[in-house]
Structure formats: C-alpha cells, structure tokens
Automatic annotation (TrEMBL):
Name of the featured protein: Glyoxylate reductase
Family: Belongs to the D-isomer specific 2-hydroxyacid dehydrogenase family.
Domain D-isomer specific 2-hydroxyacid dehydrogenase catalytic: 7-320
Domain of life of the organism encoding this protein: Bacteria
Species this protein is from: Roseivivax marinus
Any single Pfam family the record assigns to this protein: 2-Hacid_dh
InterPro entries (UniProt xref): D-isomer_2-hydroxyacid_DH, D-isomer_2_OHA_DH_cat_dom, D-isomer_DH_CS1, D-isomer_DH_NAD-bd, NAD(P)-bd_dom_sf
GO function term, MF aspect, one: hydroxypyruvate reductase [NAD(P)H] activity
Length: 322
C-alpha cells in the first residue's frame, strides 16, 4: 500500500522531517521559501495531507471538490490563516498544536515586558552604535514590574502561564478578561480578578498582555479607545496575533504618548512591519519568536505527525482545530 503523500510548506526541525520522511511520502520545502496561496491551492490537488504554518494563506477559494487533500496538519496553535468553515465544508479535517508552546510564549511575553520596562532595547542599540558615554544616575531610567498590575486579555493556557510568571516572579497583581468562565482548577494558586470587559482590564492595568486568537470577531479588538483606557504610563504586550490590534491606532497612540510603549512579537500583515514602529524607541520589536525554542518547535512538529498518524490509521485525531 502506497504511503500517504504529504507536503510541508516550510522547513521544520530536522528530527520531525526525519520522522515524516520515514513514515510518509513527504515533500519538504528545502529552501524554506514561502508558498503562495496559488501554490498551496495546487498542492491541495496533489497531496493527501498539506501541513501549513502561520506564514501561509488558505482562503475559502482554495477549497473545492477536486481536492485530493483530506487533512490540514497545521503547524501551530493559531488557525486564523485558514478559512476553517470553508475547509470543513469541503470535507477536510484540520488539526493544530495546542499546549506545547504555552511555556515558551509566556516566557516571551515576560521578555517583552522586561525589555520594555527596563528600556533594554534602547540600551543595546545605544551601546552597539558606540554612543554609550558611561554610567550616570539619570541614564535610561525605566520602571519596575514589581507591584504593578498586569491585565491579561484572553485567559487561556498562555494567558494563565504568563500571569503565573508575572505574579510569582514579580509580585504583580493580575486582572483579566475572558469571554467564558475559566476553570477554577486552572487558576489554582493564582490570585487573579476577572473583570467584565476588555476596557475594564485596560483601565486597571499598568501592563496589558494580549492572548486572544486572531481573525474573525477578534480583528482590531484593541484600538484607540482601549489605548486611552490603558493610559500614558501603560504598556501593551502582544504575543497573540497581529490583527487583534488596530496597528494604525497603535502607532498613533505611541506617537501621541497616549500609551508609554509596546512590546510586539506579531504584526498585522507580517513579515511587513510599519516603518513608523521601527523608528520608535519606546517599542520592542521581535520577529515572531513566541515558540522559537528547539524543544517547542520539535514538539509542535511531532504533534502534527501524531495527528497525521491517527488520521491515516482511521482513528480520531488528538488535536482537531477548534
């Protein structure tokens, strides 16, 4: 019996590529060039499984009755780059990789908070330019995280993990908004107050950290009104998806001093980043590194492989995209 034919749209960690090459007829993207939507659409007619990433676009127009593909094994938790309704209507199973990138993304949220609060990006740039003139009492004065209020927007796995780190490491007070009730067991040992609205969280927070899915109703959830609530000493952290923030409103708020600064790992329309953001000293910019540790990226790939193994063996997939 022929092995199922599988396409990986980007390079994956070597250990995962080796596993899939052993078990499937796999096509690897050896030069790691992003595929166009048209190329992915063509692949849907040629492969039993296509394994996309956040860098790919799979709009409704790609899915039709002529597809050979039966499963999309998404490499990542977020699936807002896939038109899920259209994919499912076309009979596709869609899976993702929840849980395994929780700790790394929470770590990065804290990294952005610390860099922003302590002006670490500004300091490194100054030193690398050769402009540092030595220690002085008023040089690059930042602010402490200790004792500040952290507002979490989206109290899922990553939001909770971020809150635990902030409270355990820095004694931060935690408030949060979540659309649905959070399982009390998931919050055990964490002192966190649920507020009624996102605006309430922004008004209460010194630092607001975003952990909601992108796309759909969440697009541009955070805009000018929310920045006004966060205020002139407030800091915004986004490790979720770029489109949950109104990027133009964010730039305007930063330029006007409506908020103090932003730490961003994701962008609307990435890899394009507005020049206005790159010019600002009160912004920390990272190139979507939330899950970028070897341990996590391998775990993500193996989770995709586990989903494929289950699907092609006729079993229920362990991680259907919700």
């Amino acid at each position: 019996m022929a092995q199922p034919k599988i396409l990986l749209t980007r390079r994956w960690p070597q250990a995962v590529e080796d596993r899939l090459s052993r078990d499937y007829d796999v096509t690897l993207n050896t030069d790691d060039t992003p595929m166009t939507a048209e190329q992915i659409g063509a692949a849907l007619g040629d492969y039993d499984a296509v394994c996309p990433t956040v860098s790919d676009s799979l709009p409704a127009a790609l899915f039709d009755s002529k597809m050979r593909t039966r499963i999309l094994g998404n490499y990542g938790v977020g699936v807002n780059h896939i038109d899920l309704d259209a994919a499912r209507a076309a009979g596709l199973t869609v899976t993702n990789t929840p849980g395994c990138l929780t700790d790394c993304t929470a770590d990065l949220a804290l990294t952005l908070m610390l860099m922003l609060a302590r002006r670490a990006g500004e300091g490194e740039r100054e030193l690398r330019r050769g402009d540092w003139s030595g220690w002085r009492p008023t040089h690059l004065i930042g602010t402490k995280l200790s004792g500040k209020t952290l507002g979490i927007v989206g109290m899922g796995r990553i939001g909770i993990a971020t809150a635990r780190r902030a409270q355990g490491g820095f004694g931060m007070k935690v408030v949060y908004y979540n659309r649905s009730e959070v399982d009390p067991a998931a919050l055990k040992g964490l002192e966190a107050e649920r507020l009624d609205t996102i605006d309430d969280v922004m008004a209460a927070a010194d630092v607001a950290s975003l952990h909601i899915p992108g796309g759909g109703a969440n697009a541009k959830t955070i805009g000018a009104a929310q920045f006004e609530k966060l205020g002139a000493s407030g800091m915004l952290i986004n490790t979720a998806r770029g489109d949950v923030v109104d990027q133009n409103a964010l730039i305007a708020a930063l330029e006007a001093g409506t908020i103090a600064g932003a730490g961003l790992d994701v962008y609307d329309g990435e890899p394009s980043v507005p020049e206005a953001l790159t010019r600002m000293e009160n912004v920390v910019l990272l190139p979507h590194l939330g899950s970028a540790t070897l341990e996590t990226r391998e775990a993500m790939g193996h989770m995709v492989a586990d989903n494929l193994d289950a699907f092609f063996a006729g079993r229920e997939v362990p991680n259907p995209a919700g």
